Predict the structure of Threonine ammonia-lyase.
Amino acid sequence: MTIALDDIRRAAAVLAGELPVTPTVAARRLSEQTGTRLFLKLESLHHTGSFKERGALAKLRSLDEAAARQGVIAMSAGNHAQGVACHATRLGIPATIVMPAQTPFTKVERTEAYGARVLLHGETLSDAEAFAHDIAARDGLTFVHPYDDPLIIAGQGTVALEMLDAVPDLEVLVVPIGGGGLIAGMATAAKALKPRIEVIGVEAGMYPSMKQTLAGEPVACSGATIAEGIAVKAPGQLTREIVRDLVDDIVLVGEECLERAVYTLVTEQKLVVEGAGAAGVAALLDDPARFRGRTVGTVICGGNIDARVLASILMRGLVRQRRVVRLRIGLSDAPGALAKVAQFLGDAGGNIVEVYHQRLFHNVPVKMADIDVVLETRDPDHVDAIIAKLREAGYPAELMDDVS
């Protein structure tokens, strides 16, 4: 079973008036960095913060009166759960969401706040899915799959209709891949409207399940990724065949590049984006030569990032840019020595954040001490100037790199 452009157009008609047309915006600063004419589709601006509302609503609207009255069930640990819960409640459809037992409480609480009943079961999404199917069969509920369903795929494909309506001369679409629902729908619409458009999928390097499946390789996925929204170990049966036929290439992006993309979107484009939502931008930053000189569109598919993760990414970004550094400085273990160094750093324009004073470790002589100073600076040149001045003044100093 497959889908066609007419299916996506029907989905668009169903969603019209119920979901907003999210903006497709020119990313001028990122365009300069990548040498492209880049446009971002801001699916993170949906009420629940992701594109998943499209497919969920398309599926829910397809139910007849009896099925709607009986209710729906889905398995998800994130955005799909919230999309189903939000629109099922709005439409008066009872919704049950099965989540793995270790799902963060904030996600459970948010899904319940949208009106769904949440059941925690199993260690993985596969466990949750099997449990959800059992309940669906027992209670006569309609199962709403997160990606492997023609109506879900058609709903997600409406993203491409809107992008090409906003920017008809797009040459390349760069789309994150988890289970494949978004890229399958978008590729179907885009290739039907513009057969020569290039569609490139992006997977997290730790979860290359679609790329490996299509290559006939054993699927090997593991590890903690900040792109948990696309950390899928088994792509859909339907989606993989559409991707095989219509997607031109799949690229992998590592964790450092995903972090850099989230950081860049916040600092350059003023957009708060989750790791999966930044995957398309990560692909452009990782290999700008591939896209240089072309008109490119990518989907910011979600903005539901944990505040602690975002804070960590922003601080690590400052470290990578050497706007926050750790210096190890040697000084005599005598009264007033630390104050002199602190005054010296202040005079040099550095702002001290933290100081760690070591007398017993680092193999320092008994009459010497090492201090590790976390310092805010302007840029790498400023750091080099501070280190040079410290050495000239008789204070041995070295830069301690904490983030690769």
